[in-house]
Write a structure and sequence with these properties.
heterodimer; A: 433 residues; Rossmann fold; 8 strands; B: 977 residues; alpha/beta; Nucleotidyltransferase, domain 5; five-stranded mixed β-sheet; 37 helices; 44% helix; 17% strand
């Protein structure tokens, strides 16, 4: 049994022995992406389980161990992890936890500390917590994000974004229910097999896979019916996680809408770009900036591969990161980087320009950056784009589904009315007389 | 002809209309459904069966609770705001905007340009249910509330964000003798402010406005407040005859798009769906059987003090009064604690009259046999009652409760008291009150909350509480504030939960609120081994049982749980050991008179709303004041670093050493400018700009910018900025300077040195939302000050681009800026040292107020600093002390500069026996969700008391006083040992 070792500040380390003996639990944010990340980590020799639990007990554990005014994602993620240790059938002495750490100025950088406090409160202080970050915070002997692993994870993310993007555009229209998800499952498995065989991890192989994936999705029989497209943006966790947003995508589907959810890639590029901007505004080492530019350039190239693959099909293709960066000029400065920063407003603008003016802006109740970049920008968007139709929805342990759904329904009703009004304006008054 | 039927099922009412082909109204009804929405709708439809039987009709359902009903029954549904817009389009075509208030929703629709429809967010009361709640609180019907409001003379500021806040504002006004008429009108004004502020979000309300929904239909006083506030004339304020049913009419209009179906089939669908049971989130029952319940009651009834017969008793007696927020409790005891007389009653908004009547009764019962030798009063109305009846002693509630609890259980180590409005919990360590937790404004799910719910569902509270005892499936309603709870209940109702399930669920959620939100406990051991529960709410067996279940531990509930405060006060009166009580005697009571008059104090810019209570014989009591000036006393002059800093900062304006030739540059006096102003003043005056500061914050300034606030849950200090920049734009400055700053100065005491996201980026929010900034030059560049050389480069570039200022001049200005800032920091620290010396010379205790720099704004702290000095404290701020400690690792990521200062100040305080910390927390401050726990642990580990004061746009100094006085009592107790 692995010995508990601490660093000089008394932080419990994840040791090499633990890598052999322990199962690492990771929260789930994007089902497809994180599923692939898990497989990639398993290939590196870690034992990893992704938590897919979704029940009231998670919130209750969260409320018990986390300050109740802390943001909802912290409450959920920590609640989910503790619930899993307590009731998930694991040996508490043989589990470790993964949690991401961004290091930005928002409360989210504190998740790891809140998690440790919660573990202590729950009498589980012997469970090691592994910080997953790109800032070099908190090192552990038994885990490291090596450059090759980072590269693989980036490929995982690219595949995830493409799969989700294509699936979202087919699922609302599929003629035989379940076709889309079957294709999705098939490709997830196929990709894992490729990864195991060491394939699919170069841009060339990725491009080929992209075409094959899209061809499969295109082959699914669909109806030609017109559906209202609804963009989903917001704080990263509640935007993506069904646990965080009360299954928002399923709800939109059940209301006869097509959810349009911008992917994870832009967020990653954004986080790297922030470092470059910091050097521009506040000064710093040119080498740091150069490194960021190279890293960012690589992901941007992958993003272009994805866009080009989509452009060859009947599917809508997203714009590039730089396109979005241009759109947001005049709204927010490059320095606005905490949480989702200007990216959130950028995503709303990009959606409006792509012909998706109906948007759900999700945020945890009291989310600090979203006061500015979410709710704070809706007025200006409405002024600049009168037909934009954005509803801000707060998520919180006490917020009820009915309240949220009613507001989304209003947005959907508005969408129809606005489309009508717009149509009427296009045909000059009296044209029919 | 196919008739169209619209059914609007709201949170509290069901509206049914029938329209003919010309959109003429053939039938309409508006009825409360008491949580039986489906049944109510069916009954109404049955009542018009004659009109519809055997016909095909088009029927559409709408409304917040209608969604579930429609889904279950397979009926067509339209969203209610959409329906309303359709109705307004059809019946009042030239409308510019619609305001609709419903039971729990508020909606606004803008026509003209692109249609804009909006509903209140999830944290926004100010609706029908809120008005109901307030009426209950004032013990009048909603109709009476309306009549009262029409006779108002003045309007008090009342928090409009949500019902819970408003309650804590109203209570002190009522308790201190404010006129009901004025309070009633103020409640309506709060609703208006909430609607205007929360829903318009920057779009102007003008032109012809239609007012809809039940409350606006029935309440003339509410209409009056809207018309007054929006300055509308009769042509522009439209109150349609059927304004309460417009959503239903809209649904009927929308029905044209749906297929007709036989009425009988529709009715059958609706009736049959009644039995459909959907999944509800439930919890284990409170009691399995009657036997369980009997054992439970027997155990708790064991702690009963002896009952004495006042009619036969001879000897000394002591009087205790607890003038609580909603109830008045009176106890007369014999020297051994035996009960001679007890009284517990709602104070009906006028505690003085109740106490007067009771005292007369007590004197009658006592006759010549019983002599009252001491009297003490505690609770919200303490000052008022003490002055009115010349009681011997006033004591803070926490101390009174501890006294009483210790009488029953000398080993008590944890006390929780849930009353009508407050929840108080405190730990007892070494025989003294050690750590006090009060419910903050947001979690006030206390006793009156269940009571209001009970009434809304048509029960009295005792009846309602009993309902839940034996249900097998209490609903899980979560643990949040009232507004959230309302919608949880709505959801449970929709899902088919019975009143019994809801009753039990509410009791459990109150308990969860107390344990997880107020006490923040993870297990029973966090509380203590000997827990005494008290307060009227624990008389409710369901609440008590839920509490024991949640903790997994048996607790003591004295049989007199509801009057423990009064009992403790009586014990304190006894321990005074007086020969004679100064309490008004029977003769004096005969000529007792009391009148209350509202006045506004004009002695300073706070303009406190005072209530002047006059009693017979010229006794007077003034309440609502924050300082002693209106009492005719000289203002306390103890050293106060908050005022000192504030005054110093206000002086950073004008031309300084320069000549002002480059023009006037405006700086908004808010948020981080409370720290950076000296820097920018040094910078711009050296560049020959004249620095123009925005005016001092005030409620008026807040209202000025209120309509442009896009997020109603952001903190009050940020909200104030809207007024500040508008004022600067009006002042006609050449440019406003308000840079974005992700990073703060690096003082080397944290892991990083960020600003919080709101402080960092608020300038950009203002630029996007405040219309007047489109015509004023508003400069919000990103800058960082902690790397001086890099800042210099950036400043040179910015000044060159914006004002064509030569490089050399800017360099010089940067130099001046840093030195100006340094001397400000130095000055604050030096003054801090002097104040500490002063305190030590005079033997005065020191309070270090830890918050953000902007918490020194009197409009933000509501005069808490002056309150502290009036209690005899010398007041210091965190930045005066933070440099006295270096970096130390924390259990949280210590990444914000201002917050790091608090940790350091707290660490320093732990080393000083004569210092205490009071932490100020702005409501909605996300970073403080992290700092408060950390501050508490630093202080408690260092053997200090932790006191937190939550502040928002409205002051509630009552709660602040309880905390400060409890702190003082605990300090005294510690000193005594």
């Amino acid at each position: 049994m692995a010995e508990l070792k601490y660093d000089k500040d008394g932080r419990l380390l994840f040791t090499k022995e633990m890598k052999e003996e322990y199962t690492i639990l990771m929260p789930q944010m994007l089902p497809v992406h994180f599923g692939m990340f898990r497989q990639l980590l398993i290939l590196e020799g870690y034992k990893v389980d992704m938590l897919t639990t979704n029940h009231r007990g998670i919130v209750d554990e969260g409320l018990k161990y986390v300050h109740n005014d802390t943001c909802y994602p912290a409450l959920l993620v920590i609640g989910q992890l503790i619930d899993a240790i307590k009731h998930g059938g694991y040996d508490p002495h043989r589990v470790a936890l993964f949690i991401t750490q961004t290091g930005g100025g928002c409360r989210a950088s504190n998740y790891i500390h809140l998690l440790r406090k919660a573990l202590e409160k729950a009498g589980l202080e012997f469970v090691p917590v592994i910080s997953v970050n790109l800032s070099g915070l908190e090192k552990n002997p038994g885990f490291s994000l090596t450059l090759p692993l980072v590269r693989k994870l980036i490929y995982g993310m690219m595949y995830g974004d493409l799969l989700v993007n294509a699936a979202n555009q087919v699922r609302p229209y599929e003629l035989s229910p379940g076709d889309t998800d079957r294709t999705l499952d098939k490709w997830q498995e196929a990709l894992i097999h490729e990864f195991q065989a060491g394939r699919g991890m170069s841009r060339k192989q990725m491009r080929a896979n992209f075409d094959a994936i899209l061809a499969d999705f295109q082959a699914i029989p669909v109806s030609r019916e017109e559906k209202v497209k609804v963009g989903v943006v917001g704080e990263i966790y509640v935007k993506f996680s069904p646990l965080g947003n009360n299954n928002l995508e399923d709800f939109l589907l059940s209301e006869g809408a097509e959810p349009v959810v911008p992917g994870l890639t832009d967020f990653m590029i954004f986080k790297i770009f922030n470092r470059e901007v910091d050097v521009n505004i506040y000064g710093g080492l040119w080498i740091k900036k150069k490194f960021c530019q190279i890293f960012k350039g690589y992901i941007e190239a992958c993003q272009r591969d994805m866009i080009e693959a989509l452009q060859k099909t009947r599917f809508r293709a997203p714009g590039t990161f730089e396109d979005m960066h241009q759109l947001v000029q005049g709204y927010l400065g490059d320095g606005n980087k905490m949480g989702e920063g200007w990216l959130l407003t950028g995503e709303m603008l990009a959606l409006i320009h792509e012909g998706v003016p109906n948007i759900v802006c999700t945020q945890p109740f009291g989310c600090l950056p979203n006061h500015i970049v979410g709710k704070g920008m809706i007025r200006k968007l409405k002024d600049d784009y009168p037909y934009s139709n954005i509803v801000a929805i707060d998520y919180d342990p006490g917020a009820t589904k009915i309240n949220q759904e009613n507001r989304i329904k209003l947005m959907l009703a508005n969408a129809k009315a606005l489309a009508k009004q717009r149509q009427a304006e296009k045909e000059p008054a009296g044209a029919g007389v | 002809m196919i008739l169209r039927v619209g059914i609007d099922i709201g949170s509290t009412t069901v509206k049914v209309v029938v329209l003919d082909e010309n959109n003429k109204l053939l039938f309409r009804s508006y009825e409360r459904h008491y949580s039986k929405a489906r049944e109510r709708a069916c009954e109404t439809l049955r009542s018009i069966e004659d009109m519809l039987r055997g016909k095909d009709v088009r029927l559409v359902v709408t409304g917040s609770a209608g969604l579930g009903v429609a889904k279950a029954a397979g009926l067509d549904f339209v969203q209610e705001v959409y329906a309303t817009a359709a109705a307004v389009n059809a019946y009042i075509p030239d409308t510019d905007a619609v305001i609709e208030l419903g039971g729990e929703d508020a909606k606004i629709i803008f026509f003209g340009g692109a249609l804009e429809e909006r509903m209140n967010g999830s944290c926004a009361g100010g609706t029908g249910a809120f008005i109901d709640q307030m009426a209950t609180l004032m013990n009048v019907t909603v109709g009476e509330l309306d009549e009262l409001s029409l006779k108002h003379e003045k309007i008090y500021p009342i928090a409009s964000r949500c019902g819970v806040f408003a309650k804590s504002d109203i209570q002190p006004i009522l308790n201190q003798g404010g006129r009901k008429e004025d309070v009633a009108a103020s409640i309506f004004q709060a609703v208006v402010d909430q609607t205007v502020a929360g829903l318009t979000q920057g779009r102007e309300l003008k032109g012809r406005i239609v007012f809809l929904g039940g409350p606006l239909h029935f309440l003339m006083g509410l209409r009056e407040r809207f018309v007054d506030t929006l300055q509308l004339d009769a042509d522009h304020a439209v109150f349609p005859e059927d304004g309460d049913c417009f959503a239903a009419m809209g649904a009927a209009l929308c029905a044209s798009d749906y297929a007709p179906r036989p009425f009988d089939e529709l009715l059958r669908l609706l009736e049959e769906s009644r039995t459909a049971v959907s999944v509800v989130d439930t919890m284990p029952p409170l009691f399995q059987s009657q036997a369980d319940y009997d054992a439970f009651t027997a155990r708790h009834n064991a702690s009963t003090p002896p009952q004495l017969d006042i009619g036969a008793y001879q000897g000394d007696a002591y009087l205790g009064i607890d003038a609580g927020s909603t109830t008045t409790k009176i106890v007369l005891i014999a020297p051994d604690g035996g009960l001679l007389y007890t009284y517990y009653h709602s104070n009906l908004g006028n505690p003085v009259a109740i106490v007067l009547e009771q005292l007369r009764e007590i004197y009658r019962l006592c006759g010549e046999r019983v002599k009252i030798r001491g009297s003490a009063v505690t609770g919200y109305g303490e000052d008022l009652i003490k002055n009115a009846f010349s009681c011997d002693l006033g004591l803070v509630e926490t101390v009174a409760h501890y006294r009483a609890a210790a009488h029953f259980n000398p080993d008590v180590d944890f006390i929780i008291d849930i009353g009508g409005q407050d929840m108080k919990c405190f730990k007892i360590r070494n025989g003294a009150v050690d750590s006090i937790m009060l419910n903050e404004a947001c979690s006030s799910g206390c006793g009156s909350f269940i009571e209001t719910f009970a009434k809304a569902l048509g029960y009295d509270i005792a009846q309602f509480a009993k309902l839940g005892l034996f249900t097998q499936k209490p609903v899980n309603l979560g643990s949040r504030c009232t507004v959230f709870m309302n919608s949880s209940v709505k959801q449970a109702q929709k899902d088919g939960a019975s009143v019994e399930d809801i009753s039990a669920g509410l009791s459990i959620s109150i308990v969860k609120n107390a344990i997880y939100k107020v006490i923040r406990a993870a297990s029973a051991d966090d509380l203590g081994r000997h827990i005494v529960v008290q307060g009227g709410t624990f008389h409710n067996d369901a609440v008590l049982r839920a509490f024991e279940q949640e903790l997994g531990r048996e607790v003591t509930r004295p049989a007199i749980a509801g009057i423990m405060g009064a009992f403790g006060a009586a014990l304190a009166a006894r321990d005074l050991g007086l020969e004679r009580s100064s309490l008004l005697d029977e003769g004096a009571l005969a000529s007792f008179t009391h009148s209350a008059k509202p006045v506004t104090c004009n002695l300073c810019t706070n303009h406190c709303s005072l209530t002047v209570n006059s009693f017979d014989g010229g006794r007077r009591f003034i309440s609502g004041n924050r300082c002693s000036r209106p009492l005719g006393e000289k203002k306390a002059q103890l050293p106060n670093l908050m005022t000192y800093k504030y005054r110093s900062l206000r002086r950073y304006c004008g031309k300084g050493q320069g000549d002002g030739s480059r023009g006037r540059i405006g700086i908004p006096f808010g948020l981080n400018m409370y720290e950076n102003l000296p820097f920018w003043f040094g910078f711009f005056t050296a560049l020959n700009f004249e620095v123009v500061l925005s005016p001092e914050s005030s409620r008026k300034l807040y209202i000025k910018g209120q309509r442009t606030i896009p997020s109603d849950t952001v903190c009050y200090p940020a909200k104030l900025l809207h007024g500040h920049v508008e004022a600067l734009a009006e002042a006609g400055v050449d440019a406003i300077w308000y840079p974005c700053m992700s990073y703060n100065n690096d003082e080397g005491i944290g892991d990083n040195h960020y600003n919080c996201p709101v402080v960092a980026y608020y300038p950009e929010l203002l630029a996007a939302n405040v219309p007047s900034l489109k015509t004023t030059r508003f400069l919000t560049p990103y800058v960082g000050l902690w790397r001086r050389k890099d800042f210099e480069k950036r400043a040179v570039k910015l000044m060159e681009e914006e004002f064509s200022i030569p490089c050399r001049e800017t360099r010089n200005a940067v130099h001046n800026a840093y030195s100006e800032y340094q001397s400000y920091l130095w000055d604050v620290r030096t003054m801090g040292e002097q104040y500490i010396e002063y305190a030590r010379e005079h033997g005065l205790p020191i309070v270090v107020v830890c918050g953000r720099p902007y918490h020194i704004d009197p409009e933000i702290n509501h005069g808490i600093d002056e309150l502290l000095t009036s209690f005899g404290f010398v007041v210091l701020t965190e930045d005066a002390l933070s440099a006295r400690e270096g970096y130390a690792p924390r259990k949280v990521l210590n990444q914000w500069t201002f917050q790091s200062r608090m940790y350091n100040a707290a660490r320093y305080v732990c080393t000083q026996p004569d210092m205490q910390v009071v932490q100020l927390v702005s409501f909605g401050c996300g970073t403080d969700a992290i700092t408060t726990d950390e501050m508490r642990s630093i202080l408690e580990d260092g053997g200090k008391l932790y006191t937190q004061l939550k502040i928002d746009d409205i002051s509630n100094l009552g709660a602040v006083k309880i905390r400060v006085r409890s702190l003082m009592a605990a300090m005294e107790e510690r000193a005594r040992r």
